[in-house]
User: What shape does this take?
Amino acid sequence: MHSGLNPSQRPAIVLLSGGLDSATCLAIAIRDGFSPIYSLAFDYGQRHRNELIASRKLSEHYATIHRVVTIDLRAFGGSALTSDIDVPKDRTDDAMSHGIPVTYVPARNTIFLSYALALAEVIDCDDVYIGVNALDYSGYPDCRPDFVEAFQKAARLGTKRTRFNVHAPLVLFSKARIIQEGTRLGVDYGMTHSCYDPVRRDGDFLACGHCDSCILRRRGFTEAGVVDPTKYA
Assistant: This one.
């Protein structure tokens, strides 16, 4: 075992963006009995960098070992989140269900999982949690079950972690079901941030209420029958 762990411990890594899904994933990893938990966030040049504040608050609340990795995906661009492309607003359900939107960051989850895999090799960890979702996912190809399975297989083939597991417990959940599960586990969604194009006002970041992420989040709370704690502009 890694020198910092004793044989009774089961470490896990949680990709913790600071959003609703990743916060729920963190609560599930804790429920599943993993300890210690390493929460991994990425400062990748995203326009909504304030999500890192939410990630830090969640890591402090749950007493995880928090790490922020800085990479520059703006060097490639190709996304409304990493270049000067307008974030789509007020899209219809039909529009959101067709094609890959400009908020998709090329290969983002592949990159994030690769960093998590590298950390897993160092700390003797075989379990990584990621909050991808194949239902309310706005058409992102790296949120599908097939992708998760393929990455897990590649990780086992290409590293010494031959029992490496990528846990995606939310992959087939609706947004409402995610919120219900997180609420049952005591997640404070007021600590999370989901908006792709936040508005800064009086020193605080408010959700725009009109991007795909805001629309799906707001609808999820309504369908879950849970009060939405989000501060909207």
About this structure: The mean pLDDT is 93. Strands lie at 12-15, 37-43, 65-70, 127-129, 165-167, 199-201, 204-206. DSSP finds seven helices and seven strands in the chain. The first strand starts at residue 12 and ends at 15.
